[in-house]
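Workshop exercise sheet. Pairs work together: one partner reads the sequence aloud, the other fills in the structure field after running the prediction. Swap roles for the next sheet.
Pair: D.N. / O.F.
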Amino acid sequence: MKPSIKIHFLGAAGVVTGSKFLIETSERNILIDCGMFQGLKNLRQLNWRSLPFKAEAIDVVLLTHGHLDHVGYLPRLLKQGFKGKIIGTAPTLAIAEIILKDSAKIHEEEAERANKEKYTRHDPALPFYTLQEAEKTINHFKMEPPDTWISLSEDILFRFRYNGHIIGATFIELDIKGKRFVFSGDIGRPNDYLLRDPNRPRWADVLFLESTYGNKIHPQEDVDVLLAQLIKETIYNKGNLIIPSFAVERLQSLMFLIWKLYEKNKIPNIPVYVDSPMGYNVLKVFERYRDWHKLSKASYSNMCAHVTIIESYKETWETIDNRHSKIVIAGSGMVTGGRVLTYLQHLIDDPKTTVLLVGYMAEGTRGRQLKDGAHDIKFFGKYYPVRARIAYIESLSAHADQKELLDWMSEIRNIPEKVYLVHGEPDALNTLRVKVKDIYNWNATIQHLNDVEHLYL
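Structure field:
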């Protein structure tokens, strides 16, 4: 009888977030990524459910990269009984540690605020996980280098391959009895400001392909011109430019762009505040792992010297009270939480304020609501009128667009037996499915949450 495996689609199937793909074999049960669902309430509620597979039966977790929607469920996995190793590249584990600790702190603060201000139906409101649980999770981390085959059992090997997107990010090649499974993770873009171009797989018997921008081509925007114009208008209006930003990669790219604009005399010397303790910690990861990015030591130092890092809430309030024009970059990127909400609480009703949204805004997030023209947004249990100007630059996305996704597949020399499209909203998934068929004549399929596929090896 031929050996077989089961593939469990536990997240990022039919949706963008919550990445979790379980490969069940006779030798090892391997979980690829272990992320949180984000966006719509019905998705976020899924985070509170236990996995439909015994966590103690999972032997190992392999991480493509450190974003919350790829690592944020790990403490819950341990709570359900997982006892194995969590393996990633050195910068991925460094990023994951920062994100898990920061996320735990936010969960604890939000639960405390909800209980104090009584804007929750839960009594008491509980954090999704605590800092103590995050630290316990980090004790399971194990670093492995890229481009090296690592044995998990007699017939199972894996390796990490450089993938751009964020520092440390990889796609994963998993060999099971000689059959190659390729998990794309999140694919970065060519000609990134900070990162090298992604590597490309050469062989894939089974391909798991992200589809975040499967229905879109990033616009050919002149980001320098757009950003410089917004900054000059902010100064002219005596207002503030608020940029919600992910702490990983997006924040560093924005710092780099603003510094380069100033260096080229394209903008005046407007104060730039970075209000993201997590972003500050990520900068240290860039300093520690120089071979994972393109910044020279001098460029890194000059870029950091051009901004003021805010390290306390006291400094946050001082920055809000400061009446001078300024740029504030603060988390979170899709306005789902973080310190950017404190700035918006006081500035989003001011017509002199500009809120610049950058990159992908998932369905159901406040960032998507603002992008779609919401007249008010709700946070901290209240509605706030939106009188600020909302601007959007899509081309700074760290995700490959449709053309770049198709190019990433172009060096695969065989015809995959299976192509699973994941990490996408329905229209993006279906559009990319048609494109894959048209260009490569490969039959791609779209899975749904908790689907189980049975494959013979």
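Discussion prompt: The longest strand covers residues 4-11. What would you look at next?
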